[in-house]
Amino acid sequence: MRMSDHAVKVEPDHTTASSGDKDNVVVTEELVLDTSPAASLSPPVPSCVPSAAGVQGSATPLASKDKARSRSKMGRDDRSTEGKVNTDIGYAISTHVGKHLNRLRGEKVLQIKCAGRVMQGKQETNGNSTHQRPRDRHEPGNKHQRKKKPVTVDTSKAKTSLEALKMSIKQLKWKEFPLGRRAACDIYWHGTSFHDNDHIVSGQVNKFPGMIEMLKKINLSRALRTMHELFPEEYNFYPRSWILPDEYQQFSAQIRGLKDSDAAAHRTFIVKPDSGSQGEGIYLIREASEVRLAAGSQARQAVVQEYVQRPLLIDKLKFDIRLYVLVKALEPLQIYIAKEGLTRFCTEPYQEPNQKNLSHVFMHLTNYSLNVQSDNFVHSDSQSTGSKRTFSSVLYRLASKGVDIKKVWSDVISLVIKTVIALVPELKVHYQADIPPGKPGPTCFQILGFDILLTKNLKPVLLEVNSNPSMRIEHEQEVAPGVFEYVSSPVDEDVKVCVIRDTLRLMDPGLNKHGHPPPAGGGGAAQQGTVITTKAGPPDKAPEEEPGDGLPTLCLKQVYPKYTKQFQYLCLVDRIATLFLRFLGIKGNMRLGPTAFRTFIRCCKLSNSNLPMASVDILYIDITRRWAASTQDSREAGMGLQAFVEAFFQLAGRRSKAALLRDQVASLLEVCEAHLDGPLSALPVAAAVSLEDRRSLSRGRAMAREASKLSPSSSSSSSTTHPPPLCSPAAPRRAVSHDQRLQRSRHGPLRTNLEN
């Protein structure tokens, strides 16, 4: 059973939004469940080469140059054997040669072996060499064009997703390189991270730099917490969380407060290690004293969350949803959601947590890697039974009980879009650090695994996001006592192969180069009463979503930028990240130095009597020190993006009297963007660094002296350099303007901020 194309409807949600929040919207997906058997994924073998008018005989190779004749032949050997196209076209002569014979007279027409290209010309003998003028393959007489080269995929780093990837490549009739390739490939499929292969300078990689770091429990919680501060109604789908050990005291005080307010209340919390996976290290607690902070001699970072105590049950079992999401690009942001997903069931009937059953992982944790070890785990070939089922089978069952599955699906889509919007700002910083503008490098895309829990009232709750969701299509099974082997899992194969195959189809370099991508969509906040209705199929289907080559319709549905107007108002942090990237200054850096922060304040004219530069320095020092202490793996000094966002929030609160933080931030963003697009944009950002800044920052002087040796080459450049536009993530180029050269001649060398 699979979901077919469906209609989408977006309308405002008036039930959960506050009276002042008119921008909260709900995406409504109208699903049509198809219970018919899935069509075969293997396209039919194409027929043999059709005959063409004017073809005389078959085209055969020449034994020697002396066998050339001025005969008019036309042929093309285009056979297909077991899905493989024979690229050796052979030799052909255009049918239009005959009409030129009177002009050519006794001159010979040559047959040239070329991949699908017909060439004609005048033979000139000069010793042993023969020259001819090639014929343009776009001339009317050349009907047989060069065949499109198959897309090449490097699968040498694919790891556990290799089997599903091989099946997908075979269905697409692309070319796989399982051991890598010296020449560049079109697509590189990595199993873990972007850095599985650090020597890629072109093509596309299926991992974003920094995605693993961003989707760790702590960083994900911080990103969603920041968005919750701005939009509490929209970002209420993630459980309240605390970061351990930094926020242990706040967590302990929270539990005491709950007990004081309601002595009978016994909340349950779940502790998740920051870098844990597959359920490893997860446990439930009811008291703060039960937190296990130590792991050996060092404190282990973790996230503690409120446990969802009333989940939706099917067959008395708790379950979660694994939904696959493709982030096709960051700039502009493109998001696709798989129409089909997996549901993973617990293997022990659910009971509300109490002190006796807190350790029953088969009851409370839905992780497949844990429950597969249970004796009650059921491997099934059916999509609607067993311990792992398809998402559509669950929706079908809910629909049979009167549940509004359109509302369920719309809430899930909103959750996904909002989560990705929260992740994008930090991902852009990582992307620029690894692939700076102007540096050769690949483009990136990635499949993410969203784990979502439905509550009893059908509200979706985000559990976590996986940067490396399992793409295995087999499971281990005991075929004899003590003998195990891997057996194919039909449910996994039906879902995962489609996701990988259609991801490759969307990333086809030929399609991305010559196709027509969907429009980026308009900006601005969603207006009350906005309704967008789309139907599956033409006329509003994007060209890249149309099936071709005998393949089924894409299982991935675009949701962004399709719904940009409904969610653009949530991108405040993304606009802050654009400011952050503008003032970084040096390629590959991810931290903002003190001079660059002061430059940001001066360029945006944020310093005044209420905020002198001394207060700016104190703000920078306080926030940077606190974030450095809470980030154990920090390798660079300075202010990261999350710290810069906190500083921006404080600056916005000082300047604006608006009641809501998001209004304060939006107001400050408008001020900054207006000043940066004004007269200051005519000068490099580095020109705003004053003598006072340079005297107060002695740490950058040594590096400045080293870099001053390179100043002649920079001073010989153009007189004025404009910074990049505000919408671009590119770092500002540090050039020397005419005014700066005058200042250097009067006041000595200008020491720019080089520690940034």
UniProtKB/TrEMBL annotation:
Keywords: ATP-binding, Ligase, Nucleotide-binding. Residues 1-24, 64-82 have a biased composition (Basic and acidic residues). One of its GO terms (molecular function) is tubulin binding. Residues 122-131 have a biased composition (Polar residues). Residues 36-53, 709-721 have a biased composition (Low complexity). One of its GO terms (cellular component) is ciliary basal body. One of its GO terms (biological process) is microtubule cytoskeleton organization. The keyword Ligase applies. Residues 1-84, 117-156, 510-548, 700-756 are annotated as: Disordered. InterPro entries: TTL/TTLL_fam (IPR004344). This is Tubulin tyrosine ligase-like family, member 11. It comes from Gadus morhua (Atlantic cod).
